[in-house]
Amino acid sequence: MPIASFDEIRARVGSEVGVSSWLTIDQARIDAFAEATDDRQFIHVDPAAAARTPFGGTIAHGFLTLSLLSRMAADAMLISEGVKMSVNYGFDRIRFLAPVRSGKRVRGRFTLDSVEEKAPGQWLFRHTVTVEIEGEDKPALSAAWLGLIFT
Length: 151
What we know:
This protein has 6 helices and 6 strands.
C-alpha cells in the first residue's frame, strides 16, 4: 500500500487515491474459485455450455471479482505510518454491473469518500471502488467499501 501521512490522507477525501495494476481473470482462477466456494454453475465452469449463452463463454463469479478488492487495495489505497491494524468493516453498497469474461483483465479505481473517527485510535475509512474491465466501457462492479483502521 502506498504510504502517506494521516493528514495527507484526510486531505484526499473526495478524490481518487489510486488505481491498481491489472489482474487477469483466466479460467484457472475461475475454476479455483468455483472449487473453493462450491459454486460450479455452468456459466462459470463449462466453456461449451456457457458459449451458448448471451455471455458467449464463461464468466467470473461476481464474488470472485469482489474478493480481488483486497489485492487491488494493496496497490492503490493509502495507508499511514503507525497503523497497527486494518480490518474489513463491510460494504454500504455493492453492484455487479457487467460480467467479466474469462481471459479479461480487471483493475480497481479507488476514491476516498470519508474518514471518520469512531473511537479514540479507531478510524472508519469509506472508499468508492470501481472495478474496470480492460477494453470495455461498463465496469464489472461498483462498491462502497468500509475499512476500520487502528492507530
